[in-house]
């Protein structure tokens, strides 16, 4: 068995990427994520999109506040999350053995929640192994010391509390 076959045997999760044709409003995002949290089998979800900064970083308006209507706090599964991006895609990591049931329920939720067309992609879109950034942030031998859901999500220069929210 070659090394790549061994790696594929160890992966027991799969990712589902929801790609709506428009950016989602905070209210829609909150509703959708709460419904997803109610499903059995999800491990984590990631929200991607263009940044919604608090202040203008460059140009003649540098330093002024940005008052964007979509930079709000949403409540997901009883936990507050500050939206720092316009929601353009959501990646859900799902346990492989619960994928079929999860996918059937997810399609029903998307049909009733989203008023825009969307695409669903299935594959591996997130890291499943440790990265150099993980080692820079946590040091050698960290794998058994942290939650496995953090692997591959680390920006070594940022505080995890600024970019990662734990929802239980």
Structure description:
By secondary structure, the protein is α+β, with helices and mostly antiparallel strands. The chain is 27% helix and 21% strand. The chain has a 4-stranded antiparallel sheet, with no helix packed on it. β3 and β4 (79-82) form a beta hairpin.
Topology:
Elements: H1 3-10, E1 13-20, H2 26-37, E2 42-48, E3 73-76, E4 79-82, E5 89-95, H3 99-113, E6 118-123, H4 132-138, H5 160-163
Antiparallel strand pairs: 1-5, 1-6, 2-5, 3-4
Helix pairs in contact: 2-3
What's this entry about, in short?
The protein has 168 residues and is an alpha+beta fold. It has five helices and six strands; from the N terminus they run H-E-H-E-E-E-E-H-E-H-H.
Query: If you compute it from the alpha carbons, what radius of gyration comes out, rounded to the nearest whole angstrom?
Result: 18 Å
Overall geometry: globular
Distance between the termini: 38 Å
**Mind describing the biggest β-sheet?**
4 strands, antiparallel
Could you tell me the strand content as a percent range?
15-25%
Q: How do the SSEs run, as a string of H and E?
A: HEHEEEEHEHH
Question: Based on DSSP secondary structure assignment, what is the total number of beta strands?
Answer: 6
User: Average pLDDT across residues?
Assistant: 81
Helix coverage percent of residues?
25-40%
Parts with pLDDT < 50 across at least 5 consecutive residues? 1-9
Class derived from helix and strand content: alpha+beta
Cross-sheet strand order for the largest sheet: 2-5-1-6
Number of helices: 5
């Amino acid at each position: 068995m070659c090394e790549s076959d061994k790696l594929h045997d160890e992966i027991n999760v799969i990712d589902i990427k929801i790609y709506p044709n428009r950016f989602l409003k905070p209210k829609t995002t909150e509703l959708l994520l709460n419904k997803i949290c109610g499903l059995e089998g999800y491990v984590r979800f990631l929200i991607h999109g263009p940044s919604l900064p608090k202040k203008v970083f460059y140009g003649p308006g540098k330093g002024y506040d940005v008052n964007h209507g979509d930079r709000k706090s949403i409540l997901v599964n009883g936990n507050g999350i500050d939206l720092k991006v316009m929601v353009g895609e959501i990646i859900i990591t799902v346990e492989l053995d619960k994928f079929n049931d999860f996918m059937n329920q997810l399609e029903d939720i998307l049909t009733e929640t989203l008023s825009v067309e969307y695409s669903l992609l299935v594959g591996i879109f997130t890291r499943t192994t440790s990265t150099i950034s993980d080692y820079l942030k946590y040091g050698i031998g960290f794998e058994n010391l942290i939650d496995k859901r953090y692997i591959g999500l680390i920006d070594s220069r940022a505080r995890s509390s600024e970019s990662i929210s734990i929802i239980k």
